[in-house]
Amino acid sequence: MRFDEFFESDDLLDALWDMRFDEMTPIQEAAIPPVLEGYDLLACAQTGTGKTAAYLLPVIDLLCTGNFPKDSVNCIIMAPTRELAQQIDRQLQGFAYYVDVNSLPIYGGTDGYTYEQQRRGLKMGADIVIATPGRLIAHLQMGSVDLSRVSFFILDEADRMLDMGFYEDIMSIVKHLSDSRQTLLFSATMPPKIQQLAKSILHNPKEVKLAVSKPADKIDQRAYYCYDNQKLPLLNHILKEDDYKRVIVFSSSKQKVKELARAIKIKNLKVGEMHSDLDQNKREDVMLDFKAGNINVLIATDIVARGIDVDDIELVVNYDVPAEGEDYIHRVGRTARADRDGKAATLINEKDRMRFKRIEKLLGKEVKKGVLPPELGEGPKFSSNSKSSGRRPSGKKYSSGNSKSGNSKTSKSPRGGDNPAADESAKTQSGRRRYFKPRRKSSVKKDIAQS
Questions:
Q1: Which of 43, 12, 9, 17 is nearest to 28 (CA)?
Q2: What is the Cα–Cα distance from 50 to 446, expressed in whole angstroms?
Q3: How far apart are CA 110 and CA 116, in angstroms?
Q4: I need a labelling partner for 191 at 20 to 30 A (CA). Which of 64, 359, 368, 451 fits?
Q5: Closest CA to 295 of 364, 247, 346
Q6: What is the pLDDT of residues 223-278, one digit of tens each?
Q7: What is the value of pTM for the model shown?
Q8: In the prediction, which pLDDT does 11 show?
Q9: 444 Cβ neighbours under 8 A, 6+ residues apart
Q10: By the 8 A CB rule, do 150 and 181 touch?
Q11: How many whole angstroms separate alpha carbon 216 and alpha carbon 64?
Q12: 3-class SS string, the chain
């Protein structure tokens, strides 16, 4: 389906044209119509499928064409982390470039001046507020915001918010909302606790479920059985297999992230680290350097496992096996975004073998096992009568092949909308009748590309 079949705002369609958004992705095609019709929505789809646009675009269109007050908050979008809140705000600014819809990001980790700016913005009213639960609760307790006239309440990465212990905060915020609001709940997975939350806050919702709990099909997943002292040389071996431009390495603790960053820097690679010890400004600097190519390898905790909008990550390495299957899905989901190819490698020691078997059970398949390079010696051997595969790692060496096949440079919006169909639509655009003309050249948006 095409966006002009549903949206009434010509200004919104102009922005989509500039950003080369044409055909809807499956989640957008399934979610946008019921949102425009006023239904509550429970939507579940894997990361990188265009979920953000699936709720932002219909809400923007409704705010443009409806009679909503300008002196109140009309829409609340909840996000689990400040990084995701910032990403949603950037995409919103791109979509709303030509329309009279304003946004206000609300998150912690800022100074007193920023907090005061947030307080004033909430008092004056904003069409869309993108907030983390803790900071919005703080403003509610200080009397800085009235949520009684909110028309749209959206939870993004709802499963992650519950994992982080925000259930009580969410329910506390819901008490301040009108019963007549429209509520949209988006999640990458659908565990029982999400279903419980949906029953508590949604009213006769429409449900959309696409590829629940499965990584993208284009991810080449491999796993290596190895001892702890083989992990670092194996990681270096994997990184040398191809001229990777963007890699994320996930580790279980911030201390190990720091140690890995120091160890890999010896190899003259451009390495950055991301963990909770970094303040907000440093985190933003690291992510900007990563997106700009000043950092090739980002070593991180699960702080960046969700909601980071970098489409051309070629390789994800799980230096440590994640604790939960859903965390694995979100980690490897950082690659193979926007219909590109990608690779994911997981390093498994003896104690994590059964944990990874549970992940494979969630995936519904066995992940291919890679062979250690000869110079590292043999890895752990497992008994053939164990519940696991019971074999020494076998199969072809984890080689990259043509890793660039999914990374051709294409024209895209400086705001980088969350739409994997954008590149393909750009290729086919010349063969289609333009369904509307941009009122301004897309070059007017260059000034926000560096923001």
A1: 43
A2: 23
A3: 10
A4: 368
A5: 247
A6: 999 999 999 999 999 998 888 889 999 998 999 999 999 888 767 779 999 988 88
A7: 0.64
A8: 93
A9: none
A10: yes
A11: 34
A12: CEHHHCCCCHHHHHHHHHCCCCECCHHHHHHHHHHHCCCCEEEEECCCCCHHHHHHHHHHHHHHHCCCCCCCCCEEEECCCHHHHHHHHHHHHHHCCCCCCCEEEECCCCCHHHHHHHHHHHHHCCCEEEECHHHHHHHHHCCCCCCCCCCEEEECCHHHHHHCCCHHHHHHHHCCCCCCCEEEEEECCCCHHHHHHHHHHCCCCEEEEECCCCCCCCEEEEEEECCHHHHHHHHHHHHHCCCCCCEEEECCCHHHHHHHHHHHHCCCCCEEEECCCCCHHHHHHHHHHHHHCCCCEEEECHHHCCCCCCCCCCEEEECCCCCCHHHHHHHHCCCCCCCCCEEEEEEECHHHHHHHHHHHHHHCCCCEECCCCHHHCCCCCCCCCCCCCCCCCCCCCCCCCCHHHHCCCCCCCCCCCCCCCHHHHHHHHHHCCCCCCCCCCHHHHHHHCCC
Distance between CA atoms of residues 303 and 308, nearest Å: 10
309: Cβ contacts below 8 Å, ≥ 6 apart: 87, 90, 91, 416, 418
Position of tokens 């990184």? 239
Cα separation, 323 vs 300, in Å, equals: 15
Which among 53, 67, 83, 69 has a CA at the least distance from the CA of 154?
53
Q: What is the pLDDT of residues 249-258, one digit of tens each?
A: 999 899 999 9
The two three-digit tokens of residue 285, written as one number: 């600097």
Q: 244-274 burial by CB neighbour count: b if 16+ within 10 A, else e?
A: bebbbbbbbebeebeebbeebeeeebebbbb
Backbone angles phi, psi at 444, to 5 degrees: -65, -15
CB-CB neighbours of 434 under 10 Å? 10
Number of residues in the chain = 451
Which stretches in the chain have pLDDT values below 50?
384-451
Residue in this structure with the two tokens 């062979």, named with its chain if needed: 371
Burial of 142 (0-12, 13-18, 19+ CB in 10 A): exposed
What residue type is assigned to position 314 of the chain?
A: E
Kindly state the tokens that stand for 421.
């169909």
Whole-angstrom distance, CA of residue 342 vs CA of residue 319: 17
What are the tokens at 258? Answer: 């720091």
Residues 6+ apart with CB under 8 A from 448: 93, 94, 97, 414, 415
Neighbours of 359 (CB within 10 A): 23
Within 13 A of 307's CA, how many CA atoms are on the CB side? 26
Count other C-beta atoms under 10 Å from residue 89's C-beta.
20
Rg for the chain, CA atoms, rounded = 22
